């Protein structure tokens, strides 16, 4: 079989992660991973300069043009190198691969919105204007709920529709005084109910419905609310009979779109449970949601129940998966899921004249997914939640703060608009494989361009149906013998030479 150009870990020892909290190396030399794109080195410089100036440890930048991922790069460290002066210990770092999975934060929401549209299409009796909640049999609602105390605290919630939830018009407004984001008040809710913290999604939603009033009439606003997407995630699971991520893998971001199942997952709360291709999230201390009254040294790990946020902000995914989402679905408007078409397939509803943006912020993570009307999509991630501060120009005015990922989106936008570079004809996504290698597994078994999978046998044990496989032998054109069976449907090419298999 001839394959040529086509147009189209093991876990590291826990000691390294522990040492990271003690000391990590200076980050002046920021490694860059992913297939080099000579035409777009200005984007490399943009990211490395920004991260170097601010001491950012890990970042991702992905760019899709005309439906093809032409730029996919990782910056910095998946796990930073460690230097301990006494006793003298040097532990090498693990570079941030371009196919790392990262916490999406609220960029999860357009995924959940797309899943909601898909699952409703399978039910003739339900649509966006159906009542979201069912308080008793036969009331026409979709998601069965049981408010704390038996009755809702605000009778208006009986009339909340799925559309209200999706477009942040369900009456909840966390921006008002003395109205917190109740999805992050696990200890308060658990104490009120005398249950263990965190209480979980269903208990949290029932408590909110039974104990908290709405802040505005249905259809008003919009006011950004995690509660609506907490409910939508549960609603998709109720109608589909599957957990949300499984449903997304099979119906929203599918193998037929070349999104293998490994590229989107439910994130985990604690570092010890993190996926092997997931970076370290860096933040200061915070209150624990698991041992109420105590604190955690890094709020990114334990200040909230991350698994419970699967519908509102708890998924992890690759840059490639998010760019594919933007290729196929509307992602929202005005940095949030306010747009009337959020989550709708683009082949049913054209994108229109307005660029769409959805951002996400968690302690230790911030993301931006940007969908341009010229068929260019951009994804940005950094592993720190911080802001670029623009000093006020007039005395008495407040300084302007822009979250890191949004700042970078603006810089990328300006660089694209300025031109001065040629768009590449090559693509950068996929699982990279050294087909001639016989080394099995290993620490860097991640499929990135600089850390490819070793050999076809290891590939078949790792890749799922729909994977895009890029054979990249050392030294260019190569012949090698391999005997076996490829039973999963996948795209295979050799973008940097010609490979002959079994000749």
Map the helices and strands.
Elements: E1 2-3, H1 14-20, E2 32-33, H2 41-54, E3 58-65, E4 68-79, E5 82-84, E6 89-91, E7 94-95, E8 102-103, H3 108-121, E9 133-134, E10 143-144, H4 162-166, H5 186-193, H6 201-211, H7 226-240, H8 244-251, E11 264-266, E12 286-287, E13 295-296, E14 315-317, H9 319-328, E15 356-362, E16 365-371, E17 376-382, E18 387-390, E19 400-403, H10 404-418, E20 431-434, E21 453-454, H11 455-462, E22 468-471, E23 478-480, E24 491-493, E25 499-501
Parallel strand pairs: 9-10, 20-21, 20-22, 22-24, 23-25
Antiparallel strand pairs: 1-25, 2-4, 3-4, 3-17, 4-7, 5-6, 8-14, 11-14, 12-13, 15-16, 16-17, 18-19
Helix pairs in contact: 2-10, 3-7, 3-8
Low-pLDDT residue spans: 1-28
The backbone outline, from C-alpha atoms, is: globular
- Average pLDDT metric: 89
Biggest sheet, open or closed, and with what strands and sense? 7 strands, antiparallel
The count of β-strands is 25
* Tally of helical runs: 11
The value of Rg in angstroms is 23 Å
Q: How far apart are the termini? A: 7 Å
Percent in strands: 15-25%
* Helix content percent band: 10-25%
Structural class: alpha+beta
């Amino acid at each position: 079989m001839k394959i040529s150009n086509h147009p189209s870990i093991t876990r590291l020892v826990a000691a390294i992660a522990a040492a990271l909290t003690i000391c990590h190396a200076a980050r002046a030399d920021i490694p860059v991973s992913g297939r080099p794109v000579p035409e777009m080195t200005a984007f490399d410089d943009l990211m490395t300069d920004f991260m170097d100036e601010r001491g950012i440890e890990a970042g991702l930048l992905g760019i899709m043009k005309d439906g093809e991922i032409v730029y996919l790069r990782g910056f910095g460290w998946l796990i930073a190198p460690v230097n301990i002066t006494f006793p003298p210990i040097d532990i090498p770092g693990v570079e941030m691969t371009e196919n790392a999975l990262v916490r999406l934060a609220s960029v999860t929401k357009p995924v959940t919105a797309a899943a909601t549209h898909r699952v409703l299409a399978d039910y003739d009796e339900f649509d966006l204007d159906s009542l979201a909640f069912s308080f008793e049999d036969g009331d026409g609602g979709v998601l069965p709920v049981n408010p704390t105390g038996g009755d809702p605290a605000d009778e208006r919630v009986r009339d909340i529709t799925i559309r209200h939830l999706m477009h942040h018009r369900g009456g909840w407004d966390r921006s008002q005084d003395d109205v917190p984001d109740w999805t992050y008040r696990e200890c308060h809710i658990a104490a009120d109910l005398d249950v263990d913290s965190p209480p979980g999604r269903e208990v949290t939603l029932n408590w909110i419905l039974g104990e908290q009033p709405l802040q505005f009439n249905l259809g008003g606003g919009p006011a950004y609310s995690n509660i609506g997407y907490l409910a939508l995630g549960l609603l998709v699971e109720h109608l589909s009979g599957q957990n949300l991520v499984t449903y997304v893998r099979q119906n929203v971001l599918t193998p037929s779109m070349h999104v293998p199942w490994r590229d989107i997952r439910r994130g985990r709360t604690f570092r010890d449970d993190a996926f092997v291709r997931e970076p370290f999230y860096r933040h200061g201390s915070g209150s624990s949601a698991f041992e109420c009254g105590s604190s955690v040294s890094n709020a990114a790990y334990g200040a909230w129940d991350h698994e419970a946020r699967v519908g509102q902000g708890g998924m992890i995914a690759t840059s490639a998966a998010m760019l594919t989402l933007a290729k196929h679905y509307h992602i929202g408007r005005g940095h949030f899921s306010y747009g009337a078409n959020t989550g709708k397939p683009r082949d049913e509803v054209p994108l229109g004249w307005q660029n769409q943006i959805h951002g996400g912020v968690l302690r230790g993570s911030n993301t931006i997914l940007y969908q341009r009307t010229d068929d260019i999509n951009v994804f940005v991630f950094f592993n720190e939640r911080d802001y670029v501060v623009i000093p006020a120009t007039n005395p008495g005015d407040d300084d302007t703060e822009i979250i890191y990922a949004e700042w970078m989106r603006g810089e990328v936008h300006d660089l694209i608009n300025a031109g001065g570079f040629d768009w590449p004809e090559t693509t950068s996504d996929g699982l990279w494989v050294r087909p001639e290698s016989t080394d099995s597994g290993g620490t860097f078994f991640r499929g990135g361009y600089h850390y490819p999978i070793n050999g076809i046998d290891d590939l078949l044990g790792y890749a799922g149906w729909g994977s895009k496989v890029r054979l990249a032998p050392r030294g260019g054109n190569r012949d090698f013998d391999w005997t076996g069976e490829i039973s999963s449907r996948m795209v295979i090419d050799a973008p940097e030479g010609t490979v002959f298999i079994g000749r």
